[in-house]
Amino acid sequence: MTLVSPQRTSDGIPLRHVAVGPMAVEVTAGQDGVRYVRAKAPLGPYPTRMTICLEHWAAAAPDRVFLAQRAKDGSWRTLTYAETLRAVRRLGQAIIDRGLSAEKPVAILSANDIEHALIGLAAMHVGVPYAAVSPAYSLVTGDHDRLRRIIETLTPGLVYVADAEAYDQAIEAVIPAATEVVAGATDGRTRKTPFAELLGTAATAEVDSAAAQVCPDTIAKFLFTSGSTGRPKAVINTQRMLCSNQ
Q1: pLDDT value of position 60
Q2: Is residue 158 part of a domain?
Q3: pLDDT tens, 207-230?
Q4: In this structure, is residue 89 part of a structural domain?
Q5: Rounded alpha-carbon distances, angstroms, from residue 125 to 40, 61, 145, 196
Q6: In a shared domain, residues 101 and 133
Q7: Residue 120 is part of a domain; what is its CATH number?
Q8: Amino acid 45: pLDDT
Q9: Among the four residues 1, 9, 163, 214, which has the most C-beta atoms within 10 Å?
Q10: Do 10 and 110 have their domain in common?
């Protein structure tokens, strides 16, 4: 099915057509009123790990912009596919060097930014799960109870925040002293590691070896529920789940 948008908005802004996949589903009844809904369209082929796509486009269109973010002055920060892959490999080496794993994953406490994306991609590239935690748990909630419970569940080996000062209260209240905290912006007077330090790591063949071992069943990330009915729960997302969805 194809949804056809108007050619222009009421303000004269041009719109493009949006193509949507087949929407037909089949519904089967289970026990106790459960209904199973399955798409009728067969699932096509998909990569075994997420960063295969990044590697492909870094080779096929290296100079095409992949990540872009508005700077404070209104200009754009951008990274091409090739630049992103180089950064992901360097960060992947830093993750390997720190011995991170599913038992010691990466936790990202701050909102979306380029560094957030790079760390998440790097972790997935070398087979280490990461979890993006709602910034509100650090910045809005005064007692940090939900953040504390999430950190207790994750036992992260590395925590990333965009700004050391903004997240300092939450970090001091919840993050164990032995856990490394990486900050995109740091005043240099705290125990936080500058993001640039990780980005300056030289990638080795260990990165390629780790990536080769990532399989569809490798845990890619932990997605936390909102905790609206109690304690936030960590939902495992495998590489297969993310790749097939994309």
Answers
A1: 98
A2: yes
A3: 999 999 999 999 999 999 887 777
A4: yes
A5: 32, 19, 31, 19
A6: yes
A7: 3.40.50.12780
A8: 93
A9: 214
A10: no
Q: Which residues of the chain have pLDDT under 50?
A: 1-5
Are 205 and 240 part of one and the same domain? yes
Identify the pLDDT of residue 9.
80
In this structure, the number of other CB atoms found within 10 A of the CB of residue 113 comes to 17
- pTM of the model as a whole: 0.86
pLDDT in the model for residue 1? 44
Q: Domains in the chain: how many in total?
A: 2
User: Cα–Cα distance between 111 and 137 in angstroms, integer?
Assistant: 11
Q: Answer yes or no: do 173 and 216 share one domain.
A: yes
- Please enumerate in sequence order all residues whose Cβ is within 8 A of that of 78, keeping only pairs 6 or more positions apart, or say none: 65, 67, 68, 69
Please report whether residue 44 resides in a domain: no
Question: Residue 17 is part of which domain span?
Answer: 2-39
Beta bridge mates, 8: 14
Q: What is the pLDDT of residues 137-149, one digit of tens each?
A: 999 867 798 899 9
Q: Do 32 and 72 fall within a single domain?
A: no
The Cα 147–Cα 93 span in angstroms is 28
Shared domain for 143 and 110, answered yes or no, is yes
